[in-house]
Design brief:
- With 398 residues, the chain is α/β, with parallel strands linked by helices.
- It has three domains: 201 residues, 3-Layer(aba) Sandwich (Rossmann fold), CATH 3.40.50; 60 residues, no CATH class; 94 residues, no CATH class.
- The protein has 15 helices and ten strands.
- The strands form two sheets. A seven-stranded mixed β-sheet has the order 6-3-2-1-8-10-9, with helices on both faces. It has a three-stranded mixed β-sheet with strand order 5-4-7.
- α1 packs across α2 and α11 packs parallel to α14.
- It is globular, with a radius of gyration of 23 Å.
- It starts with 9 loop residues before the first helix and ends with a helix.
């Protein structure tokens, strides 16, 4: 799919989309993170809902505990508006911890770890902390599973629209969400996705640029997260200003921002999960452990021998996990012409595109703590996520 441009301003196009949604659905809620995209969408939805006489606007907030204080303040301001009815979820969900080999996952809002929480529950009646509130909830649910089950619970068998503030311009995966023609849509609207019977996601601002967010905030005097002002003062480019839980595979690159933007929160962030301070050190210079980095092979090692060395230094359960993935990776390439062994290195561009095997490629996966081995073309599996959750729940009760 290629991009098509029109003479309609993105703001006007999004208002038309919101009008369409509010004309066709009675059950509507917004996925609100406190970030710039969902913030501007919520402001717009309030105005449209008022015109359609469908206030209050229902809002789902999945609070992952490790939040900037200014994000919490913005959420408080928005959910305190009379036009908003919020479900502010503060429940123990299972999340990725990409900064530790020993604790590859963590559970937010775990009452058994309360002494180390980054912050306490917000003081607002919309906060949901009772694990019995939702009939489908269980401790350690995955974020994606919770969001999907919430939508079905909210729908109660009626057609329901969830408004999601993603923009195709922000990442390739988000672009694919819009561009994929194989997905089921609502009335053939390309900016929608069928999630379950009677339950649809809509992306009203999918075609916005980052600058459009700030133009709208200024032109229409929308409230927004003031953390972005601090980011601007810290010299962070507009394209890099993102909010997310700080210990994920991609998000860990922004760990150091807590130290710069909200130093009073920083000590609690690095003390919350194992390996967070290590992740901060190496995400700042990007040289050894994370992201796109230069890898220095220790003297006396080949990439193959260094892989074995790294595996031998890991906890037994983690070593076993990686060895199984590596064996599958080698088996795949064995039937594709590498019967004896894969090479030490391959063309860097082919390695980056995951089109050529090498021991250097395997080494990078281990050094990056790429638990799901995405660098070897694997993806997350439900069986492995369940196994990790069981381990996490077991250790949290010891």
């Amino acid at each position: 799919m290629y991009k098509k441009y029109s003479n309609t301003a993105v703001y006007d196009a999004s208002i038309d989309r919101l009008d369409f949604i509010y004309s066709n659905f009675n059950k509507i809620y917004i996925a609100f993170s406190g970030g710039k995209d969902s913030g501007v969408m919520l402001n717009m939805a309030i105005e449209v809902a008022r015109r359609h006489n469908k206030l209050p606007v229902h809002v789902l907030i999945v609070d992952l505990e490790a939040q900037y204080q200014k994000t919490v303040e913005f959420i408080l301001r928005m959910v305190s508006r009379v036009e908003v009815k919020a479900y502010w979820v503060c429940l123990p969900l299972n999340l990725r911890n990409a900064v530790s080999q020993y604790q590859p996952h963590w559970i937010c809002w775990d009452e058994e770890k309360r002494d180390s929480w980054v912050r306490e529950y917000a003081d607002h009646p919309a906060v949901i902390k009772d694990q019995q509130f939702f009939p489908f909830f269980r401790k350690g649910m995955e974020f994606e599973e919770f969001v999907r089950e919430f939508g079905k619970w909210f729908a109660q068998g009626e057609d329901t629209a969830c408004l999601v503030g993603i923009r195709a311009d922000e990442s390739y995966n988000r672009y694919k969400t819009i561009a994929n023609f194989s997905k089921s849509r609502y009335q053939n609207k390309q900016w929608s996705t069928k999630i379950a019977p009677h339950f649809y996601n809509f992306y009203p601002i999918y075609d916005w640029k980052t600058k459009d967010i700030w133009i709208a905030n200024g032109k229409y005097d929308f409230d927004y997260n003031k953390l972005y002002d601090l980011m601007y003062l810290a010299g962070i480019p507009l394209s890099k200003m993102r909010l997310c839980q700080p210990y994920g595979d991609d998000q860990r690159k922004g760990l150091y921002l807590y130290k710069i933007l909200e130093p009073e929160v920083w000590s609690r962030v690095v003390g919350r999960v194992e390996g967070a301070n290590f992740g901060n050190r190496y995400s700042e210079n990007n040289r050894i452990a994370f992201a796109n980095f230069k890898m220095y092979l220790p003297e006396g090692h080949t990439y193959k021998s260094y892989t074995r060395f790294l595996l031998d230094t890991m906890p037994p359960h983690l070593k076993e996990h990686y060895e199984k993935k590596i064996d599958k990776f080698l088996s795949y390439w064995r039937v594709r012409g590498y019967a004896t062994d894969i090479p030490e290195t391959a063309d860097l561009k082919l390695e980056a595109k995951r089109k050529a095997p090498s021991w250097r490629r395997i080494c990078k996966v281990l050094l990056k703590n790429d638990y799901w081995c995405k660098g070897l073309s694997f993806s997350e599996t439900k069986k492995e996520m369940t196994r990790q959750l069981n381990l996490l729940l077991k250790t949290s009760t010891l």
